TrEMBL record:
The keyword S-adenosyl-L-methionine does not apply. InterPro entries: YabQ. The chain crosses the membrane at residues 30-50, 57-75, 81-98, 118-143. The gene is yabQ. This is Spore cortex biosynthesis protein YabQ. Keywords: Membrane, Transmembrane, Transmembrane helix. It comes from the Bacteria.
Amino acid sequence: MMIISGMMLGIIYDIYRVVASQIYFRRWLISSLDVVYWILSTLFVFRMLYLSNSGEVRFYVFLGLTLGIIFHYVYFSPLTIKIIILVIRWIKALIHFVKKLFSIFIIIPIKMIYRCILILLGIIMAISIFLCKFMLQLLYPIWRVLKWLLKPFKTNILKWFRPILKRFTRR
């Protein structure tokens, strides 16, 4: 049981080592993950020890763990590392594929709709500006006539309000 536990510790350590080398972790996080690895491996070994011989710690426990780790590193470590790297490549390819699908089916259509709305609003704005200018040109002669007609009233109204305005501005 301890030889198998030693092999499992080797496999888990290979997984941790390869993942840590493939993915960028900050230095403080690597130290924290080391501590987590050793805590979990200790709990695993003591659980296996408790299941196999009621938790008795003897010399053959350490011998079995050491033999299991050595056996793993001699025979299974290169294969384990290749498999882990292959799995990481598959996961990266899957993530890239999902990102590409997300971009094609969600991001690009949203951008296209946004651009179409901007073009439509630009066309509406250009048409409204054109219509406003056109209406102003049509109403300009009427405005000149109204201005000419209201010119006498403008001067009379100002004459009426000048004394009132002077009272308020003196204070």
